[in-house]
Every structure is written in C-alpha cells, then in structure tokens.
Design brief:
Layout: E1 7-18, E2 21-32, E3 36-41, H1 47-55, E4 62-67, E5 70-71, H2 77-82, E6 85-88, H3 100-106, H4 115-120, H5 122-126, H6 137-149, E7 155-159, H7 167-182, E8 186-190, H8 194-199, E9 203-208, E10 211-217, H9 218-222, H10 225-232
Parallel strand pairs: 3-8, 3-9, 6-7, 7-8
Antiparallel strand pairs: 1-2, 1-4, 4-5, 9-10
The structure holds adenosine-5'-triphosphate and magnesium ion.
Length: 238
Amino acid sequence: MVLFPVNVLSIEDVYVHRSGLPIVRGATVTVARGAVTVLLGANGAGKTTLLEGISGAIPIASGRITLGGTRVERLRAWRRARAGLAHIEQDRTVFRDLSTEDNLRAACPPGRAIDPVLDLFPELRKQISAPAGLLSGGEQQMLVVGRALLGRPKVLLIDEMSLGLAPIVVERLARAVRRLADHGVGVLLVEQFANLALSIADRAYVMARGELVYAGDGSALRADGRLLHALYLGETRH
Ligand SMILES: Nc1ncnc2c1ncn2[C@@H]1O[C@H](COP(=O)(O)OP(=O)(O)OP(=O)(O)O)[C@@H](O)[C@H]1O
Ligand SMILES: [Mg+2]
C-alpha cells in the first residue's frame, strides 16, 4: 500500500470513439507510482478501448491525459512510449521464430542489459536459446512483459495477461506485476480474474457500458462480491 501516492498518470474526462460511436464516456482514472490500479468490467465494457486511447493506439475524442506532469493526449503513440508509457495489448505476441534472447534484445535499447528481466522471470533464463514459439503460454506472456520492461516505463498498461493461461500461471504473473509496482512502476491492469487482480491492487475501477461506475479501494471491492456483480452489470454506482 502506498502511503503518499504520486500520480504518474492522470486521465481526466476522456471520451474515446470507435467508428464514430462514443465507446468510452467521461473516464477519469489516476495511476500512482508504485501502485497497482486495476480496471475491471464485463466483456465489451470498453476497457481495451480506454487503454488504447491512453497509449495513443487510437486517438481520443476529448479529455486530458497527463504523464509525469506532461500533457500527452495529442502525442503520437511512439512519443508517449518514449515518454514512459508501455502498453501490453490484449492480442500481444512474441516473435515466434526468434529465440527468447533475441526477442529481448530486439526490444532492448542499445547499451542496456536484458538481465533484470531474466532476474524477474528466471523461467526465461532456462529457455534463453529456445525459439519463443515453443515456450509455454505463461512463458510467452512473461516474455511479452519483459520486452515492455526493457524500455524502463514509468507506467505499464496491461490488457488481460490471463487469456488462455492456467490459474497458477496467472498467479505467478500477478506476483511479478506486484513486484514491479513495488519497484516504482505505476501499473494499470485490465484483468478478467477479478479477485486475483484485486488481491494485488491498491486501487480499483469498474467500467460498465463505457462509463466508470466504481472508483475506490481494491480491498473494499474484494470483500463485497455482490457489489462487484452489480457493478459489472451496471446496476449500481459507487
Ligand atoms: N471498431 C469498432 N467499431 C465499433 N465498435 C467497436 C469497435 N471495436 C470495438 N467496438 C465496441 O466497443 C465496445 C467496447 O469494446 P472493448 O474491446 O473496449 O471492450 P472490453 O471491455 O475490452 O471487452 P473484453 O473484456 O471482451 O476485452 C464493445 O461494445 C465493442 O463491440
Ligand atoms: Mg478488452
């Protein structure tokens, strides 16, 4: 738990359209340095759309996005990445024919070592020469996270790290994400396994039909399954 949170990313009143339709409406989210912030919600709620608007994968229609004190909502995606915003997209992949090591080297700025990633995920060290396409689903996801970390982001946006993975592997990844936050990264995590996500969260948001219907403490939400259910359905606000 962060006692004196420093907001490294602020999203204020953001609207994001797709095909001319307003999908995310008036989202206001803060991500603190050294904290895990989770964004929950049913399928189709607009979570991926919001993350894409934050990273610049798609333009936002209106609102403000501030990263480390600088307004970034008009910057191209690569400039936001360079300013410290890493986005692990929902359909992320590795270069299957390249080895684990070459996948990491391809994402590594010149002169920087890949060892911190191998220290965080020792599983990857064991498979360092294997083609990434032969790694397990969990190891591939570790590689995806590791590649994002090599840019030393201030903020990591993670869209569904659990897709298709066994619960024990998802727990392993969740612990790694918690550790990253404990080392100072601000994490915004979208996750279908709500209870697992809440177990590592400092702060939580729930989105229903494009609007945020909950902003608050992660543990409060974890303790009240009925509230969480009603929020998912968009039947209540809190
Ligand atoms: N290109 C598009 N044009 C119009 N509507 C779209 C487009 N892409 C997505 N949508 C709609 O936007 C809404 C939000 O989709 P989004 O992928 O952001 O939801 P999500 O919360 O990430 O869902 P999931 O949990 O399934 O990943 C959905 O109703 C979807 O049908
Ligand atoms: Mg999604």
